[in-house]
Design a protein that fits this description.
The chain is α+β, with helices and mostly antiparallel strands. The chain has 5 helices and 8 strands, in the order ααββββββαββαα. The strands form 2 sheets. It has a 4-stranded antiparallel β-sheet. A 4-stranded antiparallel β-sheet has the order 2-7-4-5, with no helix packed on it. Strand 4 and strand 5 form a beta hairpin. The longest helix is centred in the C-terminal third of the chain and has 25 residues. It is globular, with a radius of gyration of 15 Å. The mean pLDDT is 91. The protein binds adenosine-3',5'-cyclic-monophosphate (CMP). Adenosine-3',5'-cyclic-monophosphate (CMP) binds next to strand 5, helix 3 and helix 5.
């Protein structure tokens, strides 16, 4: 399902913590860069490790697991986002993300994602904080193994 009307998209955006606290102007900016809302079935591969990254995705309903080399490394739930790494560093997808339930996703294409980072400092900061949290969690998991 793709939603094309901007007011509909803004209603979806308001449900996403990444965009909470944004002004009406910034929400409009984000809505302009949002390609649509997509529903997928359980088991669908949402991003594939090693593939080229073309989209940034936010989970508005459902959950997904992150797998690296076939092993689960994290779980993503409502409000979480993924796909930012490839768009930021231009490298292939670092992991696969697989729907664990039927999932509803908000999709932002790579060009709009770049514009979003440039134009909305609040979003940039929240993405940076999430990257730090994921790195800390990965470090902790590694330390536990060793
Ligand atoms: P990207 O590399 O573009 O595509 C796979 C995505 O999985 C990645 O961006 C992140 O959004 C997400 N991801 C990768 N590693 C982790 C992790 N350790 N914890 C949570 N999400 C991750």
């Amino acid at each position: 399902m793709f939603l094309s009307r901007r007011p509909d998209r803004i209603d979806w955006l308001k449900k996403v913590p990444l965009f909470s606290g944004l002004s009406r102007r910034d929400l409009n900016l984000v809505a302009r860069g949002t390609t649509g809302v997509v529903r997928t079935d359980r088991g669908r591969v949402l991003t594939r490790q090693g593939a080229l990254g073309e989209e940034f995705l936010l989970i508005v309903d459902g959950s997904a697991r992150v797998e690296r080399d076939g092993k689960p490394i994290a779980r993503l739930d409502v409000g979480d986002f993924f796909g930012e790494m490839s768009l930021i560093d231009g490298k292939p997808r670092s992991a696969s993300v697989i729907a664990e339930t039927p999932v509803t996703l908000l999709v932002v294409d790579s060009r709009s994602f770049g514009c979003l980072l440039d134009a909305v400092p609040g979003v940039r900061r929240k993405i940076a904080v999430t990257l730090c949290q994921r790195l800390r969690a990965a470090d902790a998991a590694l330390a536990e193994k060793n």
